Amino acid sequence: MKKYLLLFCLMALVQVAFASSDPTDYPLTETRVMKDSVVIEFGKSGKVVIMVESKEDFEKLKLMNINQIISELDLEENKQTGELTIVEIRKKDGSVKEVVKVYEDGLETEVNVAGVRVYVDESGENTRVKVETGGRKKSDPPFRSYFNVDLGINNYLEDGSFPTSDNPYAVKGWGSWQVGLNWMASQRISKGFHWNFGIGFQWYNFKFENRDFQAVRGEDMIEFAQRTDVDGFKSKISASYLTAMTLLELDFGKMNDSKRGLSLAVGPYVGYRLGGQSKYVYEELGGSGRKKDKEATGLYLENLRYGLRGEIGVGRITFFTTYDFNELFQEGKGPELNPITFGIVF
What we know:
- By secondary structure, the protein is mainly beta.
- The protein has helices at residues 2-20, 55-62, 66-71, 252-255, and strands spanning 37-42, 46-51, 77-78, 83-90, 96-105, 108-113, 116-121, 128-133, 143-157, 177-190, 193-207, 213-217, 222-226, 230-251, 262-284, 290-295, 304-314, 317-324, 338-345.
- It folds into two domains: 2-7 and 22-133, no CATH class; 143-345, Lipocalin, CATH 2.40.128.
- A hairpin with a 2-residue loop joins strand 5 and strand 6 (108-113).
């Protein structure tokens, strides 16, 4: 099907491209139309007419088949993009005008001729042919790499629910930020279906709602000490991780040849802790200026974190959520808390 498409576009549509060009750009040559011709009929109403000028040309034509005709065009394909140029015009000023281009990727072929786009999809049971005008649309590349940023709000679940305010480690939503820097790559499996994978750095902050409690390192576990000797302003635990992730993505917009649409992605992740500490900002009673206490409470944090990540894209906006299957603290070293994050991807 693709070879027939290339041949017919080359024979029928290139004439349109030449006819629409400025004749002063190209040298004039004398053209003679002969009455001798070969008519090839196909299907119910398809027809190709080939003009020959002599008996010798006709004898050579009889020995050729359609595969040979195409192969003798001596086309050079860009192996990385699947792109090849069939016809180009070199003007007197040295510039080049591309008339016919073909983009091929497996069972999908796209032919662009003078602003007309012919798309053939043979990946399903039935062959789909779509004709568009207005130039070539930006295609979905088979592989790409990119960089994105996560910005989210952290909390954690204890026995399936968020800790209440009477717990010293209850989290204050505003200020409990998660920031992630991710280097990602995407491999297209089929139209609108991608495998995304990457690696990144994540910084987690859990800001306590009750700022009178400070997380300190006890002898064998983390402790939450109530500070009545100072005025507390901020109390939190922070941790950083090197994280690898992989997701399977369905992009319904690309499936329907739309620029923007709904997309869904889900997949696991695993991370290794790089650091962790507690921070307490306070002011002594009577006023002395703000001071900071920092403790390396990372000793009681789990070194390995793993869980599930989900993403929902609506137009240009992508939301994400992560849930850690492991607990934040080591077993027996602190409360049983599973971190959870909600945010947006930039």
